[in-house]
Amino acid sequence: xxxxxxxxxxxxxxxxxxxxxxxxxxxxxxxxxxxxxxxxxxxxxxxxxxxxxxxxxxxxxxxxxxxxxxxxxxxxxxxxxxxxxxxxxxxxxxxxxxxxxxxxxxxxxxxxxxxxxxxxxxxxxxxxxxxxxxxxxxxxxxxxxxxxxxxxxxxxxxxxxxxxxxxxxxxxxxxxxxxxxxxxxxxxxxxxxxxxxxxxxxxxxxxxxxxxxxxxxxxxxxxxxxxxxxxxxxxxxxxxxxxxxxxxxxxxxxxxxxxxxxxxxxxxxxxxxxxxxxxxxxxxxxxxxxxxxxxxxxxxxxxxxxxxxxxxxxxxxxxxxxxxxxxxxxxxxxxxxxxxxxxxxxxxxxxxxxxxxxxxxxxxxxxxxxxxxxxxxxxxxxxxxxxxxxxxxxxxxxxxxxxxxxxxxxxxxx
Length: 414
Ligand SMILES: Cc1ncc(COP(=O)(O)O)c(C=O)c1O
Known about the structure:
Rossmann fold; alpha/beta; 4-stranded parallel sheet; binds pyridoxal-5'-phosphate; globular
């Protein structure tokens, strides 16, 4: 922990990076298939890659780019891309279809429905994944059971129920909800579509991570239309680490050792299981216990996905933990931009990475990290706003009422 700037970090100095798993898990053909299927979903459009040139200028950075998943279909989060791709693959397996035979129209046809009957999909969630599964199950004509933990806000529960899912509230935290979901699914014959992995359960989480890469193919298209080959740095937030592994694995495979961006993984300091795993430095994933109490609901996970950790331990460069107010500040920076920059509506989990960069560049200390990252006027930094206003009450409390205020010591000086 650096007291001057209130953030903790670990630099993973790789002698060499083993990107073989990243290449195996994120082949470009699979990303293209995911994008083809996603683009057939009614309401699909490419989300914007918002450039914030004035903020970049203020921070002395070449470019700040935010992939705005707050605009992702009607769900306002990237999460739906993973769950829907896992469901597409599930039906492909059941029906023994080749990739070329897969289409959204065919999967939603009466013929398919009568062949398969009604299936119940089940998952635990801290909000967005469950909403995505509920939405995709409804869209494809099936049933859905979603498990949430007792700290989940009513707004998030209602948003899942709105797509016809049955929601069960489980005592404890996210990890308890995962365990209970698996037990009940086994007893009832439901299909578990979990974004986290465990021993013997890796196929679905792999597909979920692959589904996220639609967003990255879009990003690359948007970068290349601006003459940028790859970003120089990518800040990505982590709960169980599946998103971070998808982003870092995809880019590691794509760049294949040439101009690979520096990858920075950001977590809440109350739920830093990826950070704890990096800190232990024994190659194994490590859990953190407790209530995991953080405003970043999507990142409140105490157990890393082992599958994700396998990618992150090889390919991620820096691990950062920050307090809640950093996410709140990130939300305010995005919602009240500098003149000429676009406004971005971001939820707590979506904004923490930009908040972390701001904290790092505007406060003293952290010289070793700054030197290692070498962020300068030639840097093009990518952030993913992973959610929009998914919890409107909390959003208003932060943006309107100034909740989770920046402590005086770390505030902008008058
Ligand atoms: C908005 C948001 N951002 C980021 C994440 C982190 O994803 P992961 O759990 O795969 O690390 C989540 C997870 O639910 C989320 O909802």
